[in-house]
Each structure stands twice: as structure tokens, then as C-alpha cells.
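Q: Joint fold for the lines below.
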Amino acid sequence: MTALLEARGLAIRYPSPRGEVRAAEEVDLEVGSGEIVGLAGESGSGKTTLAMGMMRLLPPPGRVAAGEVLFDGTDILSIPEERFRREYRWTKISMVFQGSMNGFTPVFTVGAQIDEVMRIHGREGGRAAIGRLLRMVDLDDGIARRYPHELSGGQKQRAFIAMALALEPKLVLADEPTTALDVITQANVVNLLKRLRKETGVSILLITHDLALISQAAERLYLMYAGRVVERGPSDRLLREPMHPYTQGLVAATPTLESRDIKGIPGFMPDLARLGEGCSFHPRCPRAMDVCRRERPALRGVGGEGVACWLY
Ligand code: SF4
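A: Joint structure:
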């Protein structure tokens, strides 16, 4: 599959009084055309920062310290901001943010806000176009005339996804798109993303801490820990036979209908401003060895599979 989005050696850093925060380091990631790819990890593992960095939306003083992000072969980090805003952000790459269902302005109707996004980017808005978008996400046309507070959480999330698709982007970065929704609505939103991919061919990078959710949608997964990708591979293999002890811990901590004993991962994510030598997971790893404390394992593997662990 041709890569639509390709991050190579991406590093994102923030200065802080404690030292430089290494929010993402040496990240390689690919999303193919028409593919749903999952990016998973605990809160604070660097997933959202990575997405914001790729969209050139890092709040200062955050900065991309190294690497490149290719979209359809163009390095979108090196082009002028004006060109990126005009040709890429929202038009070719859009984003459903964390808590985006609360991202609508309360004083305008949903339809007016979708219409504005379309017109700002030179598309013809209007009732018919908005109705088509709302129906695409299984909402009634009448939702366009309602104010955000008149919608349920699930309806608002669908309406935001409709807005993200308004300019027919090739890629959507969906960051925790189901947070704060009940489990039935979560499943509906995931099924919606899968259907939209099938119908429109849009690629989706689905970012979440929820492995159960991601396993329903993504063909391939990247697992992040302390700003680095520690394992990558096809979702079914990675969830059935996880290799990295961190992935194993996450899978064991994911509830299923059969699970009687859910184990958490003891300890906490390290301070990203004070990462020492060695594997960042070693203080929490039940299989840590001497070498793990001294030297950082590189991500090694063949093709789309890989793991960063001295056990392999
Ligand atoms: Fe555990 Fe060592 Fe592998 Fe890190 S490199 S996950 S500490 S075994």
C-alpha cells in the first residue's frame, strides 16, 4: 500500500524548568491510502503531541526538533505556513480533536458552522451540501438548524465528524474521538468511521488509549510509550500475541467479556524531561535485565512489524 502520510525520525520537544521535555523521539509512522491505522498508548505517551506536530498545531514553545512528515510525497513541515493552511490543513488533512464535540460555538447553529468552514475554504456550502454531510454521518438534515446544546454527545460527535469531512480530506486524524461517550455510542462512532472509510476512501489515524476500541477498527497499530514507538504491527497479531512487555501489560489490562482478572501495569510513565539511559519502560517491566537499564533498544523488525525490546 502506498503511504499517504509518512513521518520519519520525528522528534518533538518542549523547554521546561525541569529540562527539555522529549515528547516524541525518533518516531517513524505510516498511514496508507484508505487505511485505518491505530496509535495507542497511555495518557502522556506522546500520541496527541505527535498528531499536533504533524498538523503544525503545536502550542509554543513546543517545536519539531528533527524529522520530516511527508504527505503524498511533500514534506509538509518545510513548506510555508500560508501554503500549508491553504492547501493542506482541513482540506487534505483534517482532525477530530479530543473533546471536539464541545468544539462547536454555542451561539451558532451546527449548520451555520459547517457552512462557514466550507465557504472559508472556497467550497459551496448551503443547505443541500450540509444535509448531504449530515446524512453521511447518519444524522437528520434538521440537525443543521439546531444549536450544539440541543444535541446529545453522540450527535455532536457525529456532527463534528461531518464538519471534518466537509472539504473531502484524504486523511483524518481522529484523536480520542469517543472519549466521554457511552459504550454503545462509542461503538457506533467507530462503526461510522469504518463505513466512511469504505464509502469515501478516506484514511484515518485513530489515536486512543483504548485498545478494545482500536482493535475494532484499525488494521495496523503503533504502540507508544514515553514518546517512542515501542511496537508496531497488524492489529490482530499485536493484540493476540503482543511482544513488548508494555503491549502485553496493556492487553492484560483491557477488559473483555471473559476476563475475570484484569491486571494493571504497576508504576507510572517516566518524567519526559528526565529520561535516563536505557529502556524507558524498565522501572515498570517485569522482565527487565541489566542491559535494559544501560542501553536503549532500537525498534527492530521486518516490513510493517517491529519491537523495541532487548528480549528480541
Ligand atoms: Fe523490559 Fe528490557 Fe524489553 Fe524494556 S528492553 S521492555 S525493560 S525487557
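Q: Anything notable?
A: The two ends are 27 Å apart (CA to CA). The chain is about 30% helix and 20% strand.
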